[in-house]
Protein backbone atom coordinates (compact mmCIF):
# COMPACT_ATOMS: atom_id res chain seq x y z
CA UNK A 1 0.00 0.00 0.00
CA UNK A 2 1.61 3.23 -1.12
CA UNK A 3 1.57 6.14 1.30
CA UNK A 4 3.20 9.45 2.04
CA UNK A 5 5.48 9.74 5.03
CA UNK A 6 3.04 9.53 7.94
CA UNK A 7 3.04 11.74 11.00
CA UNK A 8 2.81 10.51 14.58
CA UNK A 9 -0.40 8.48 15.06
CA UNK A 10 -3.14 9.72 17.36
CA UNK A 11 -4.98 6.99 19.27
CA UNK A 12 -8.62 7.17 20.25
CA UNK A 13 -9.51 7.60 23.90
CA UNK A 14 -10.99 4.47 25.51
CA UNK A 15 -14.72 4.32 26.07
CA UNK A 16 -16.11 5.10 29.51
CA UNK A 17 -17.96 1.81 29.76
CA UNK A 18 -21.16 1.39 31.77
CA UNK A 19 -21.59 -1.51 34.18
CA UNK A 20 -23.41 -3.69 31.63
CA UNK A 21 -20.42 -3.50 29.29
CA UNK A 22 -17.76 -3.89 32.00
CA UNK A 23 -19.39 -7.16 33.10
CA UNK A 24 -19.64 -8.47 29.55
CA UNK A 25 -17.40 -10.04 26.92
CA UNK A 26 -16.71 -8.47 23.52
CA UNK A 27 -18.35 -11.13 21.37
CA UNK A 28 -16.92 -9.42 18.26
CA UNK A 29 -13.32 -9.83 19.41
CA UNK A 30 -11.02 -11.37 16.84
CA UNK A 31 -9.31 -13.12 19.77
CA UNK A 32 -12.51 -15.17 20.08
CA UNK A 33 -12.61 -15.84 16.35
CA UNK A 34 -14.94 -13.05 15.23
CA UNK A 35 -14.63 -12.11 11.58
CA UNK A 36 -15.94 -9.49 9.18
CA UNK A 37 -17.36 -11.55 6.31
CA UNK A 38 -18.65 -9.02 3.79
CA UNK A 39 -19.32 -5.35 3.15
CA UNK A 40 -21.53 -3.84 0.48
CA UNK A 41 -18.74 -1.29 0.02
CA UNK A 42 -15.41 -0.75 1.77
CA UNK A 43 -13.69 1.36 -0.85
CA UNK A 44 -11.83 3.67 1.54
CA UNK A 45 -11.16 1.31 4.47
CA UNK A 46 -11.61 -2.46 4.56
CA UNK A 47 -14.30 -3.76 6.85
CA UNK A 48 -11.97 -6.12 8.74
CA UNK A 49 -10.33 -3.12 10.46
CA UNK A 50 -13.59 -2.43 12.28
CA UNK A 51 -12.96 -5.45 14.56
CA UNK A 52 -9.29 -4.77 15.33
CA UNK A 53 -8.73 -5.14 19.09
CA UNK A 54 -6.48 -2.11 19.55
CA UNK A 55 -7.88 1.45 19.75
CA UNK A 56 -8.48 3.19 16.44
CA UNK A 57 -5.69 5.49 15.31
CA UNK A 58 -5.40 8.47 13.02
CA UNK A 59 -2.16 8.95 11.10
CA UNK A 60 -1.77 12.48 9.68
CA UNK A 61 -0.50 12.52 6.13
CA UNK A 62 -1.05 8.79 5.51
CA UNK A 63 -2.76 8.08 2.19
CA UNK A 64 -3.23 5.02 0.01
CA UNK A 65 -4.27 4.66 -3.62
CA UNK A 66 -7.95 5.34 -2.82
CA UNK A 67 -7.43 8.37 -0.60
CA UNK A 68 -6.90 9.12 3.09
CA UNK A 69 -6.03 6.02 5.09
CA UNK A 70 -8.58 5.47 7.86
CA UNK A 71 -8.49 2.95 10.67
CA UNK A 72 -11.91 1.34 10.46
CA UNK A 73 -14.56 0.48 7.90
CA UNK A 74 -15.37 3.26 5.43
CA UNK A 75 -17.52 3.15 2.32
CA UNK A 76 -17.43 5.63 -0.54
CA UNK A 77 -19.90 8.50 -0.87
CA UNK A 78 -23.17 6.99 -2.05
CA UNK A 79 -24.66 8.63 -5.14
CA UNK A 80 -27.66 6.31 -5.48
CA UNK A 81 -30.54 5.28 -3.23
CA UNK A 82 -29.88 2.76 -0.47
CA UNK A 83 -27.36 2.26 2.30
CA UNK A 84 -24.23 0.28 3.06
CA UNK A 85 -24.03 -2.76 5.31
CA UNK A 86 -21.64 -5.40 6.57
CA UNK A 87 -21.85 -8.99 7.82
CA UNK A 88 -19.98 -10.00 10.98
CA UNK A 89 -19.59 -13.45 12.52
CA UNK A 90 -19.36 -13.29 16.30
CA UNK A 91 -16.49 -15.14 17.94
CA UNK A 92 -18.95 -17.21 19.98
CA UNK A 93 -22.71 -17.45 20.11
CA UNK A 94 -23.99 -15.11 22.76
CA UNK A 95 -26.69 -12.96 24.31
CA UNK A 96 -25.94 -9.31 23.47
CA UNK A 97 -26.20 -6.61 26.14
CA UNK A 98 -25.19 -3.72 23.91
CA UNK A 99 -22.73 -2.15 21.51
CA UNK A 100 -19.96 0.41 21.27
CA UNK A 101 -20.28 1.89 17.78
CA UNK A 102 -17.09 3.94 17.73
CA UNK A 103 -16.68 6.69 15.14
CA UNK A 104 -13.31 7.91 16.48
CA UNK A 105 -11.47 10.07 13.93
CA UNK A 106 -14.44 10.01 11.55
CA UNK A 107 -15.43 13.66 11.77
CA UNK A 108 -16.97 14.59 8.41
CA UNK A 109 -17.41 11.07 7.12
CA UNK A 110 -19.30 9.23 9.90
CA UNK A 111 -22.71 7.65 9.19
CA UNK A 112 -25.67 9.71 10.44
CA UNK A 113 -27.32 6.52 11.74
CA UNK A 114 -26.76 2.80 12.35
CA UNK A 115 -29.00 -0.20 12.90
CA UNK A 116 -28.03 -3.79 13.69
CA UNK A 117 -29.77 -7.05 12.84
CA UNK A 118 -28.90 -10.56 14.07
CA UNK A 119 -29.43 -14.18 13.08
CA UNK A 120 -28.35 -17.70 13.99
CA UNK A 121 -26.54 -19.54 11.21
CA UNK A 122 -24.31 -22.57 10.89
CA UNK A 123 -22.80 -21.09 7.72
CA UNK A 124 -20.52 -18.14 7.02
CA UNK A 125 -21.34 -18.21 3.30
CA UNK A 126 -22.39 -14.73 2.24
CA UNK A 127 -25.21 -15.93 -0.02
CA UNK A 128 -26.61 -18.12 2.77
CA UNK A 129 -26.49 -15.19 5.19
CA UNK A 130 -28.12 -12.82 2.70
CA UNK A 131 -31.08 -15.19 2.57
CA UNK A 132 -31.21 -15.76 6.34
CA UNK A 133 -34.02 -14.59 8.59
CA UNK A 134 -32.78 -11.43 10.31
CA UNK A 135 -34.11 -9.84 13.50
CA UNK A 136 -33.55 -6.16 14.25
CA UNK A 137 -31.92 -5.91 17.69
CA UNK A 138 -30.88 -2.24 17.44
CA UNK A 139 -33.26 0.10 15.61
CA UNK A 140 -31.89 2.96 13.52
CA UNK A 141 -29.96 5.12 15.99
CA UNK A 142 -28.29 8.51 15.37
CA UNK A 143 -24.50 8.68 15.39
CA UNK A 144 -22.17 11.64 15.88
CA UNK A 145 -18.60 12.47 14.88
CA UNK A 146 -15.55 10.94 16.55
CA UNK A 147 -17.31 9.41 19.57
CA UNK A 148 -18.06 6.16 21.38
CA UNK A 149 -21.77 5.42 21.06
CA UNK A 150 -22.72 3.01 23.87
CA UNK A 151 -26.07 1.52 22.88
CA UNK A 152 -27.98 -1.06 24.92
CA UNK A 153 -29.74 -4.04 23.36
CA UNK A 154 -33.06 -5.21 24.83
CA UNK A 155 -33.20 -8.53 22.96
CA UNK A 156 -32.35 -11.55 25.16
CA UNK A 157 -31.90 -14.22 22.47
CA UNK A 158 -28.52 -15.71 21.56
CA UNK A 159 -27.04 -14.93 18.13
CA UNK A 160 -24.12 -15.97 15.92
CA UNK A 161 -24.05 -13.31 13.15
CA UNK A 162 -24.75 -9.59 12.79
CA UNK A 163 -25.71 -7.35 9.91
CA UNK A 164 -24.50 -3.78 10.57
CA UNK A 165 -26.37 -1.18 8.51
CA UNK A 166 -25.08 2.39 8.08
CA UNK A 167 -27.33 5.10 6.67
CA UNK A 168 -26.47 5.96 3.97
CA UNK A 169 -22.68 5.57 3.98
CA UNK A 170 -19.54 6.58 5.89
CA UNK A 171 -17.14 5.11 8.39
CA UNK A 172 -17.10 3.22 11.70
CA UNK A 173 -13.75 2.97 13.43
CA UNK A 174 -14.56 0.08 15.77
CA UNK A 175 -17.50 -2.15 16.64
CA UNK A 176 -17.61 -3.79 20.08
CA UNK A 177 -20.42 -6.21 20.86
CA UNK A 178 -20.81 -6.65 24.61
CA UNK A 179 -22.61 -9.73 25.84
CA UNK A 180 -22.44 -13.17 27.41
CA UNK A 181 -21.24 -16.29 25.58
CA UNK A 182 -23.64 -19.22 25.75
CA UNK A 183 -23.38 -22.88 24.88
CA UNK A 184 -20.19 -24.46 23.64
CA UNK A 185 -20.29 -27.44 25.98
CA UNK A 186 -23.74 -28.88 25.37
CA UNK A 187 -22.33 -31.48 22.98
CA UNK A 188 -19.26 -32.39 25.02
CA UNK A 189 -18.72 -36.13 25.39
CA UNK A 190 -19.42 -37.36 28.95
CA UNK A 191 -15.81 -38.39 29.54
CA UNK A 192 -14.13 -35.58 27.58
CA UNK A 193 -11.74 -33.34 29.51
CA UNK A 194 -12.57 -29.74 28.51
CA UNK A 195 -11.70 -26.28 29.78
CA UNK A 196 -14.88 -25.54 31.70
CA UNK A 197 -14.10 -21.84 32.19
CA UNK A 198 -12.85 -21.00 28.69
CA UNK A 199 -14.58 -17.98 27.20
CA UNK A 200 -15.29 -19.83 23.98
CA UNK A 201 -17.07 -22.48 26.08
CA UNK A 202 -19.32 -19.92 27.75
CA UNK A 203 -17.15 -19.02 30.76
CA UNK A 204 -17.84 -15.60 32.25
CA UNK A 205 -16.15 -13.26 34.72
CA UNK A 206 -18.75 -12.46 37.38
CA UNK A 207 -16.74 -10.00 39.50
CA UNK A 208 -13.24 -8.99 40.57
CA UNK A 209 -11.93 -6.63 43.20
CA UNK A 210 -9.34 -4.87 41.03
CA UNK A 211 -7.99 -4.72 37.49
CA UNK A 212 -5.84 -1.61 37.56
CA UNK A 213 -3.48 -2.83 34.85
CA UNK A 214 -4.37 -4.52 31.60
CA UNK A 215 -7.68 -6.25 31.03
CA UNK A 216 -10.39 -7.35 33.43
CA UNK A 217 -10.42 -10.81 34.96
CA UNK A 218 -12.16 -12.00 31.78
CA UNK A 219 -8.71 -12.03 30.12
CA UNK A 220 -7.91 -15.15 32.16
CA UNK A 221 -10.36 -17.10 29.99
CA UNK A 222 -9.29 -15.91 26.53
CA UNK A 223 -8.25 -18.50 23.93
CA UNK A 224 -4.60 -19.32 23.41
CA UNK A 225 -1.57 -18.20 25.40
CA UNK A 226 -1.09 -14.60 26.48
CA UNK A 227 0.68 -12.33 23.99
CA UNK A 228 2.45 -10.06 26.47
CA UNK A 229 2.17 -8.69 30.01
CA UNK A 230 -0.82 -6.59 29.00
CA UNK A 231 -2.76 -9.68 27.94
CA UNK A 232 -3.93 -10.98 31.31
CA UNK A 233 -5.41 -9.97 34.65
CA UNK A 234 -3.14 -7.71 36.73
CA UNK A 235 -4.02 -5.89 39.94
CA UNK A 236 -2.40 -2.87 41.53
CA UNK A 237 0.28 -3.15 44.22
CA UNK A 238 -1.63 -3.89 47.42
CA UNK A 239 -0.73 -1.51 50.27
CA UNK A 240 -3.14 -2.92 52.84
CA UNK A 241 -3.86 -6.37 54.35
CA UNK A 242 -5.80 -8.92 52.33
CA UNK A 243 -5.59 -10.38 48.86
CA UNK A 244 -7.03 -9.91 45.37
CA UNK A 245 -9.64 -12.19 43.83
CA UNK A 246 -12.08 -12.81 41.02
CA UNK A 247 -15.24 -14.89 40.70
CA UNK A 248 -15.78 -16.85 37.49
CA UNK A 249 -18.80 -18.75 36.17
CA UNK A 250 -18.14 -21.98 34.27
CA UNK A 251 -19.54 -22.47 30.79
CA UNK A 252 -21.45 -25.44 32.21
CA UNK A 253 -21.45 -27.10 35.65
CA UNK A 254 -18.93 -29.90 35.93
CA UNK A 255 -16.24 -31.61 37.97
CA UNK A 256 -12.80 -29.96 37.84
CA UNK A 257 -9.92 -32.45 37.62
CA UNK A 258 -6.96 -30.27 36.62
CA UNK A 259 -6.07 -26.60 37.11
CA UNK A 260 -3.46 -24.63 35.16
CA UNK A 261 -2.31 -21.21 36.36
CA UNK A 262 -0.17 -19.46 33.75
CA UNK A 263 1.96 -16.45 34.81
CA UNK A 264 3.46 -15.95 31.33
CA UNK A 265 5.25 -12.58 30.99
CA UNK A 266 4.67 -11.73 34.66
CA UNK A 267 8.23 -11.79 35.97
CA UNK A 268 8.54 -9.11 38.63
CA UNK A 269 4.86 -8.84 39.39
CA UNK A 270 3.44 -12.37 39.59
CA UNK A 271 1.42 -13.31 42.71
CA UNK A 272 3.32 -14.99 45.51
CA UNK A 273 0.58 -17.61 45.97
CA UNK A 274 -2.86 -18.60 44.71
CA UNK A 275 -5.84 -20.69 45.79
CA UNK A 276 -9.21 -21.67 44.31
CA UNK A 277 -12.59 -22.01 45.99
CA UNK A 278 -15.64 -23.49 44.27
CA UNK A 279 -19.36 -24.17 44.66
CA UNK A 280 -22.48 -25.19 42.79
CA UNK A 281 -24.76 -22.15 42.67
CA UNK A 282 -28.36 -22.55 41.52
CA UNK A 283 -29.63 -18.99 41.94
CA UNK A 284 -28.88 -15.44 42.99
CA UNK A 285 -27.41 -12.35 41.38
CA UNK A 286 -23.81 -11.52 40.56
CA UNK A 287 -23.65 -9.46 43.74
CA UNK A 288 -25.04 -12.19 45.98
CA UNK A 289 -22.82 -14.81 44.37
CA UNK A 290 -19.78 -12.63 44.98
CA UNK A 291 -20.69 -12.30 48.67
CA UNK A 292 -21.28 -16.04 49.00
CA UNK A 293 -17.94 -16.83 47.36
CA UNK A 294 -16.03 -15.86 50.49
CA UNK A 295 -17.41 -18.98 52.17
CA UNK A 296 -17.13 -21.55 49.38
CA UNK A 297 -15.19 -24.78 49.93
CA UNK A 298 -11.52 -24.90 49.00
CA UNK A 299 -10.83 -26.68 45.72
CA UNK A 300 -7.11 -25.85 45.58
CA UNK A 301 -5.28 -24.88 48.80
CA UNK A 302 -2.73 -22.07 48.67
CA UNK A 303 0.11 -22.84 46.26
CA UNK A 304 3.39 -21.01 45.64
CA UNK A 305 3.71 -19.44 42.21
CA UNK A 306 6.76 -18.64 40.08
CA UNK A 307 7.48 -16.08 37.40
CA UNK A 308 6.59 -16.69 33.75
CA UNK A 309 5.50 -20.31 34.27
CA UNK A 310 2.60 -22.70 33.81
CA UNK A 311 1.64 -24.30 37.13
CA UNK A 312 -0.37 -27.54 36.92
CA UNK A 313 -2.35 -29.01 39.81
CA UNK A 314 -4.08 -32.39 39.86
CA UNK A 315 -3.36 -34.30 43.06
CA UNK A 316 -3.73 -31.11 45.09
CA UNK A 317 -7.43 -30.71 44.20
CA UNK A 318 -10.18 -31.53 46.69
CA UNK A 319 -13.05 -33.70 45.47
CA UNK A 320 -15.96 -31.29 45.57
CA UNK A 321 -18.11 -32.90 42.89
CA UNK A 322 -20.09 -30.75 40.46
CA UNK A 323 -19.47 -27.01 40.68
CA UNK A 324 -20.69 -24.07 38.63
CA UNK A 325 -18.52 -21.18 39.92
CA UNK A 326 -15.00 -20.64 41.23
CA UNK A 327 -13.28 -17.91 43.22
CA UNK A 328 -9.66 -17.48 42.15
CA UNK A 329 -7.56 -15.90 44.91
CA UNK A 330 -4.08 -14.40 44.43
CA UNK A 331 -1.86 -13.44 47.37
CA UNK A 332 -1.33 -10.63 47.89
CA UNK A 333 -1.63 -9.14 44.37
CA UNK A 334 -0.05 -9.31 40.91
CA UNK A 335 -0.71 -10.62 37.43
CA UNK A 336 -1.83 -13.92 35.89
CA UNK A 337 -2.02 -14.53 32.16
CA UNK A 338 -4.44 -17.48 31.88
CA UNK A 339 -6.47 -19.81 34.11
CA UNK A 340 -7.56 -23.19 32.76
CA UNK A 341 -10.03 -25.40 34.64
CA UNK A 342 -10.00 -28.80 32.98
CA UNK A 343 -12.86 -31.11 33.83
CA UNK A 344 -15.94 -33.03 32.75
CA UNK A 345 -19.34 -31.53 32.04
CA UNK A 346 -22.16 -32.66 34.30
CA UNK A 347 -24.45 -34.31 31.76
CA UNK A 348 -27.70 -33.34 33.47
CA UNK A 349 -26.85 -29.63 33.72
CA UNK A 350 -24.96 -28.61 30.56
CA UNK A 351 -26.35 -25.44 29.03
CA UNK A 352 -27.99 -25.59 25.66
CA UNK A 353 -27.19 -22.07 24.50
CA UNK A 354 -30.84 -21.43 23.75
Automatic annotation (TrEMBL):
The gene is alc. This is Probable allantoicase. Pathway: Nitrogen metabolism; (S)-allantoin degradation; (S)-ureidoglycolate from allantoate (aminidohydrolase route): step 1/1. It catalyses: allantoate + H2O = (S)-ureidoglycolate + urea. Its EC number is 3.5.3.4. Keywords: Hydrolase, Purine metabolism. GO terms for molecular function: allantoicase activity. It is an enzyme of class 3 (hydrolase). Residues 33-181, 202-345 form the Allantoicase domain. The keyword Hydrolase applies. It comes from the Bacteria. It holds the Pfam family Allantoicase. InterPro entries: Allantoicase, Allantoicase_dom, Galactose-bd-like_sf. Belongs to the allantoicase family. GO terms for biological process: allantoin catabolic process; purine nucleobase metabolic process.
Amino acid sequence: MASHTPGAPVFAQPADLPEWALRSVDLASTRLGAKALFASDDFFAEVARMLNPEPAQFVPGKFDTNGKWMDGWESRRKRVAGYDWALVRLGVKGVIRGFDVDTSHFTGNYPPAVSIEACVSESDEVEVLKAASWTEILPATPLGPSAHHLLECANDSAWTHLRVNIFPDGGIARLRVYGRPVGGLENAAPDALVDLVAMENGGRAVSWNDASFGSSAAALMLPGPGKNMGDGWETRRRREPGNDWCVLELGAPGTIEKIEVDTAFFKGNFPDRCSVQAAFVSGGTDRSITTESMFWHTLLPEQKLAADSIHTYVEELAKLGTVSHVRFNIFPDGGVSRLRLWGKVAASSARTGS
